[in-house]
Structure formats: structure tokens, C-alpha cells
Design brief:
mainly alpha; Serine Threonine Protein Phosphatase 5, Tetratricopeptide repeat; 2 domains; two-stranded antiparallel ribbon; 5% strand; globular
Length: 597
Amino acid sequence: MKKLYKFLLISVLSSVTLFYSCDTIELEQLTSPNALSPEQADADLLLNSIQLSYRSSQRTFQAVSADLGRIDYMFGRNYLENYGDGTLNNVWNSFYSNNLPNLQAIAAIDAANPYKDYSYHLGIAKALQAHTLMQLVDFLGDVPFSEAGNPAEFPKPNVDDDATVYEAAIAMLSEAKAHFNATSGIGTGNDLFYDGDATKWIKLVNTLEMRANLTTKKYAAVTSATGTIENTEDDFQFQYGTNVLSPDTRHPNYANDYTQSGANIYQSNWLIDTMVGDFGDFSADTDPRRRYYFYRQNWRTPGSYALFEDVNGQFGPPGDVYVSNGSGNGETLQCSLQDTPTHLQFTPDEDIWCSLALGYWGRLHGNDEGTPPDNFTRTAVGVYPSGGSFDFRADAFPFVGDSPTATFGQAVGLGNGGGGAGIDPIYLASYVDFMKAEANLALGNVNVAADHFEAGMTKSITKVQSFGALDGAADKSEAPDATTIADFIAAKVAEFKAADATSGLDSFGFPVEKDKMDLLGEQYFIAMYGGAGDAFNFVRRTGYPRTLSRSVESNPGAFPRTVLYPSVEVSANGNIVQRTDLSTTVFWDTGVVNPAN
């Protein structure tokens, strides 16, 4: 036990520093600074460390997955360079150096304190560890497990077969559920996700089991799954606050975009284009969530078109709406003066590879240009899920004779909108419906799939709309009303039902017409905005949606099936041999190729 106690001290001290300054640790009260006993260790601090570490890891998984799924913008033209040996360094350290030993420490505390119940601590720790372990397999394949967490005996642990590790993670979920069934909770101070509600944790565990079955294509188990996250009040998410300093509790994307010097994140041209439609609110297919997702700072992007309302009737009857084409501007948008890359010509990407309509300003997949002075013109994150601002401007800019760009009046700023009180969505009720829609489609249950397709859209839109209240000062007159939303959902469901089960590709690899899985993939990806941890799995598992934008680079290299092993482990562990490419497939990956890749 002596060696374990030494390990406990390291874990506890690393956890304590997250919450207290160094002078609050009274070492003289310990039996020995090198032999902290289980009775003196703090399970609450260990659990908080696990939860915060897990949250950080989820942001990394989500970022990589969202980039590869075009939900977010990917910087860099070459996949191998983008997802090299530094991609998962922090996640690896978080899991193997923090979460795994801290779980072992909580188990030791539980064993040393038979009269105190630590079931809830163990349930949370095992649920989060199981999820992360599955994701490590999804992104890396074979990883250490059986020899991990025992540095005295295995200082350089070998990797285990990825399928075996997946089974171990699933078994851990069962253990977590048993812990939750044995306790009523620990209160609000230690549970950063569900506020001490064991029932909601059990729903998450059931959802993660369903996720594992979907990943491994056990579709019948997915369609019959019960007790999962089905209502938005059970959504698994991390809540942020509005505090700016000591500590900064705001959503990280808000902190990056709502600054005195403007926005710093580029949004995905593919996602914006998929949601906006040709003419925004003048088009029936414009997505009701776009004003909540994206905050425009600009009315017309160089090289594209915008709408304006002739308020005073300078060109015709007052109130008429016109299309205004913008010329290129090499200073703020260099590509607006360039020719369309040859491989994108005559494809749907030709219209969005550089500029977007209606003042939206993002970037196409793979664009690696430098940063021009566009911090107050690029599109920023909105009120969902980052706690930013609601996009209140009409799509047709009210032109009264002066310069529209001088009077747009919609720039980001410190403290604007919801002040950063957003969320990291991890598993939402809408995701569960889209997962079940996929499984039912695979089994030929088309009508049931359509029902879940509709439910997923409805739950997503309802949740996103609720975030409008965070920006209480914003004019909501442009927010979609109930009729607009109902019509949009009905039209998408009708399109889904009418679509073929499969459709062919044109000479450029784009679908001649969207089939059911294209439509499902698009709506699932839209719903996953801000928390797209499973988009990478979806693309590899299904090869959809085939409408994803191509890279601005004609030869970006092979699309990743996995990423490289973390350099922090390869350099210290000779039993792990680094790969030379990203082609290694996970045990569940049958090699289905999305034509966009």
C-alpha cells in the first residue's frame, strides 16, 4: 500500500491546486508528505479533477471531430500535418496521468472507509473513464489498458487490442450503473454535470452503451435501447458562467470571439451554407437555428452578394428588396480576388469556397491563409452554445442612402450577448434520436427512422431557441416564429420521406440528389454544432453525408482513419511504435469512404 499512498499524494496535490492556493495546504497535519493515507485523501477533490479533466478532453475530441466533419473550420491543407503526434497529447496525459490514477485513489478511499458511501463518486468516475476510453480507441485504435495504471510493474505499458479495450469500457459502464443504483447522490457540490441526480447519470450510461452498439453496428440493440437521454432536461452538458477573471468561467469560444479587438474564430463555410439557404429568410429552407449559431458583423462579404431594402425608394417603390453583388477585396479577403481552384469548379463548392452570401464570413475546409484585418467582419459564434449574441439583423439590410458598411452596427464586444454563459453539449436528447434514426434506416424501418429524424430536429431547434433568453437585450423580431419552425421541420421531414434510400454520384463525386442518409447526416451534424464528438465516427462508419465540402487543397492526403499516437507517450514508451500515416483502421471501421474525402 505504501506505493499507492505516494501516488495518492501526487494525485490529490495536483487536484488541490485546481481550487486552492498553495498556502492552504497544511503539510504538517499529514502523517508524512510521502505517505498520505486513504482516510486523509479528499474524494471530492479527486472527483472534481476527474470531471474537469474529462471536460477538457471532450473539447479536444469535439474539435478534431468537428473539423473533420466540416461542422467547424479546419485550418491546414494536409491531414497528416494537421493531426500529427501532438493532437491527443493533452487527452492522453489527462486520462492516464490524472483520471485513471484518481479513479484508483477513490476506490482506495472507498475501501478504507467502509462506513462511508462513495458509490456516486465511483459511478461518475467510471462513466467518464469508459467514455474517454472508447474515444481513445476511436481515434487511435490499440491503446494501453490492462497494463496501465500500474507504473511500478509496467512502467512502459503495452497496447491492448482495440476491440478488447472497447469491451472493457462497456463493462466499466455496467459497473458505473451499479454504483449509481446503489446511491441516491452526493449533493450539488461535487457533481459538475447532473447536480447530484443519479437517475440522470444512469440515462447517460444507457446512452453511452447505445453509442457503443451504434459504433459497432449492432443496430437492433440501438433501436431497442431504453432509459436513454430522451428529454432536453436530461441533456449531458457542461455549463459555463460569465465571470471574466479569477477564474474565467466563460465559454472558451465566447472568450475568443467577444473581445475588444474583435472575433478570432472562423466558422465553417459548409455549415453556414447548409443552414442559410440562398436568400435567408426569403427562402423557405433557411434553418431556424442559424441566428442563434452565427453572429454576423458584416452585411456583404467581398466577392459575394447580399440583400438590401430600399427604405426610401431611391431605386423603385419604397421597401423593395434588391440583390447587391460585392467586389473582391484583397486586403480583407485575399481569395475574393483569386480564381476558383480547378478541382472545385462546376461543383457546389464553387459558390462557397471563398465568400458566403448575406454577410456571412467564414472559411472553407483546409484554408490555411494568414489572418487579415477581418476581426470585425468575420462571423462570430452566436448565443448557442457559446453564450454570445443573437443575430438580430434583417437579412435585407435597410439601405437609406449612406454606406451600409458604416452603419451596420453589429460588432462583437466584451460582455455582449449572454456574457459567455453557454454550454459544452456532449450528449443531447436530439443526438439520441438521430442515432436511432440511423439504426432504423440500416434495418429498413423507414417510417420509424422518419419519426426519429423529426424528433431530433424538433428537440434541437427547441433547445437552441431557449438560448435566446441569454441575450435578453437583443431585438428578437427577426427570430423565427412557431409557424416558420413548424413549416421548416415539415418540409425537411417530407424531403426525407421522399428521398431515395440511395442515390448516385455525379462526375465530381457529389450526390446527384440527396438520399436519406445524406439528409440525416446533414441534420445530425447541424444539431451537433458546438459538441460534435461523434461526427468523425459517423463519417467513417457511414460514408455520409456526401454533401460535405471538399478541401480547398486538391491533394490534402488520405482522410484520417485514426490519428498518430501522442508524442508524449511514444518518446517515453518504447513499446508503442509510431505510425507513418493516418490509414490505420479501428476494429469497427470497415473502410467506407466519403466521396468528399
